[in-house]
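Researcher: Sequence of Galactosylgalactosylxylosylprotein 3-beta-glucuronosyltransferase follows. Predict its structure.
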Amino acid sequence: MGGPRTSIFLRQKKFQFVLVAAVVVFLIVLFPNLYDSDKKHETEETNVLTRLDLPRRSKKGFPHKEDYEKEYPLLLENEQLVICYESNVDSRKALYAATTLPDVTDEPSTTQRNHHQQAPQQQLQQVNGTEPVIYFVTPTYPRREQIAEIIRLGQTLMHVPRLHWIVADDTNSCSEVLNSHIRKFGIPYTQLASPMPTMYRGRKNAPRGVANRRAALNWIRQNQKKTGVLYFGDDDNTFDLKLFSEIRYTKKVSMFPVGLIGDYGISSPIVRNGRVEGFFDSWPAKRKWPVDMAGFAVSLEYLALSPNATMPFKAGYEEDEFLKSIGLKLEDIEPKARNCTEILVWHTQTKSSKSPTVRISMDRQKLDKLNLGALLRRLESMGVNHISESEGTTAQAIVNGSVKPFSFWFS
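Model: Prediction complete. Tokens:
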């Protein structure tokens, strides 16, 4: 009776052995392919034109979880700086070259009195080009309001002499539409393409503007800019012109209040006897430097002492980590804006809306007989709206209070 049972037992053992052997062979064949696939994936990413700020990858090509929280070197492997357009020509000097100020009948403000007193010296510096250059870095991204924001900011910067405007656009391609508006201000400028790495876009709190600012830092280093002042100014912020004269002669790091921030409505250094001793900000979050991005300026001479200074992809901690990376000390901070009693920059924010789709069920070429043809094309190129023949809100015209179809003009 033991013979058949023994035979069955041996057959079962043989089957198990064959199964295990098959699994081992399958794994031996599969793993090299996976590794080669991951290597191929890495190679494909390496060859992308704009590879800004991708973190180091694990052996299988997946990002280490801890890498999200690390500060990466400014220049990464295969990182490329994409300069779209650039001009060093200042063609708006007539705007600030006036030698006289308009008559003031009322009692002049403190700012006006200071301007009268400093005007001769400032004009001499402007003529001789001896003032330190302000490198004004503006991160931006394609959206309905982008061009309107750039126009408003450009109108302010037109009045600031000795300024180089670095506009870093969160896109893989170079926007000709954006460039056409930047260029018309006559300000020396550089337009960069600086897309946020894909791995960060899906995060709930995506680190917006980091890739843009890192690209600007990259440009400053590659062009060996070691004199002047660095300032990060968003395209939707509001700036008092006095701010620029305040920060222009920053020795190391200057700081000042920013209005419309957080639950306090303000973010500011706390100053006593002309020295910064702490910070007033409604979101401490264990930050050593709880300041807003628009609340400080850095001397490029001081920045050059920290060749690895960078800004990490860590939402909410960009300012803190950047200032840590340049080795800032409390005693190095220069309080501006009358010992931080004035607000010279406001964190205004434009409400973002989805671009509407307008339905026009007719030959678009007919609209060229009206102003609407060119107007709608211009708005569409800016991303303000979209025109469709079959979707969206039906376009109508109003004539003498009555709604008319567009065919009214062509019937």
